[in-house]
Amino acid sequence: MENGSKKKWNFNGNKDLNASAISVKGVFNKLTATLNKDDKRPVVRLCRADPTDFFKTTDDASHAVAESILSFKFNSYSPSGGLPDAKRAVADYLSSDLPYKLSPENIFLTSGCTEAINITLTVLARSGANILLPRPGYPQYQSRAAFCGLEVRYFDLLPEKGWEVDLDSFVSLADENTVAMVLINPSNPCGNVFSYQHLQKVAETARKLGIFVISDEVYGHITFGSKPFVPMGVFASIVPVITLGSLSKRWVAPGWRLGWIGTCDPNGYLQDTEIVTNIKNYLDISCSAATIVQAALPQILEKTTDDYYSKNLNIMRETANTFYERCKDIPCLTCPNKPEGTMMVMVQINFSQLEDIIDDVDFCIKLAKEESVILLPEGVKRIKAFGLRHSKKL
Question: The Aminotransferase class I/classII large domain covers which part of the protein (predicted)?
Fold first, then answer.
């Protein structure tokens, strides 16, 4: 440059993107970078909910995708919103749990549930709007809201009440600019399942506030406790519901990147307020889900047997019970509730019993470095050893 000075360019990186880059993947990569390369033990990954680490999808699902590829019929671009047969299959699948029937026009296929989240929050991001998110919750919602300028307000989930929504604080957060709330059921990261009665109270509260419910049901039907899974769409006659789901967890195929948005709204409020129109417009400028997986979807949903689901749930139940019991032997950890669903569990770190641990991030970084555990019952012994090593000397 002239006289050794730096040239002034007219471009810069988007600082809003840096500020909103909070994700499970980002944390996972950060912790992986801290692993001790001299530790020859296998790494135990507890912070990445990738079911392919422990399960495999069904043979019928794999054959359906192979058949789709070999037919040479689905190498083209997908219509915006998805292939008609795939949309109809998802509508039928969701309708089996509802007191009314969804049509293919209620379904929009996306490139995984992450894109479904991005689309749904982006279409709500008008100037001054805010959205209510659960705490604890899934970081993608916070990241997307921050990136598209949607203000976030957090309502608490109460561990002493099985992680139910704190309805009083929920109401106090809302104002005339609140557009929606997010509910994750079964819950990631808490591992709880909301009861029918509690979901009805949430729906009635949202109706009073004039907002709709975004119901993240990626872990739908992955329940192994006393409470059955109840989709929020059951209460759509009370309050409009947008249901989000995907193939990732129940069918163990996150890499296939197929998710969906379902508008559960028998009264047509989402149509009248142009939320549906905005979703369609967004899909016109976004990348569609792979057509080969879309084409296989009807067979996947139809042919997956109850035995497959039950086998996986039995493994999850046994693992959850084992973790819950073994966690009692780790003084620095408390598990408020035994997991009832998903592949998650929320634990509390008792910092009063630890020394040289600053916060939860510090705990996880040092645990990864010392024990090669990235916060499965396989890792509990190492977590216990770590806790004892850092316990305060009395």
Answer: 43-377
Dihedral of the CA atoms 80, 152, 174, 205 (nearest 10)? Answer: 60
Give the C-alpha separation, 300 to 205, whole Å.
36
The residue type of 65 is V
Q: How many angstroms separate the CA atoms of 235 and 94, rounded? A: 14
H/E element holding 263? strand 259-264
Instruction: Read off the pLDDT of residues 58-89 as tens digits, 9 standing for 90 and up.
Output: 999 999 999 999 999 999 999 999 999 999 99
CATH fold group of domain 59-303: Aspartate Aminotransferase; domain 2 (3.40.640)
| Phi, psi (rounded to 5 degrees) for 343 | -120, 25
In terms of CATH, what superfamily is 24-56+307-387? Aspartate Aminotransferase, domain 1 (3.90.1150.10)
Note the pLDDT tens digit of each residue in 113-132. Answer: 999 999 999 999 999 999 99
